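S1.2 Input.
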Amino acid sequence: MWMEGRWISPTFLRTLQGKATFLCLTAGSTASLIFAELGYGSYLYVFWILLILATTPYQIYQYRNGYQQTSPPDL
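S1.3 Output.
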């Protein structure tokens, strides 16, 4: 994938996606705990919204490039 004139490998994107998912899971669970402590337990959907936001961009990238493989394409 070309971005700003340089090649970004799918492996790098997967690593970035893993980190983004982890951060959103952490932020979502923390937000859920805070909401529960404040008595807003019904707002746990914030966790799911953050998770969806974390996983959507890479899924769109894979869909546009037409493959669902785990190994990087041959260059």
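S1.4 Remarks. The CA atoms of residues 16 and 58 lie 9 Å apart.
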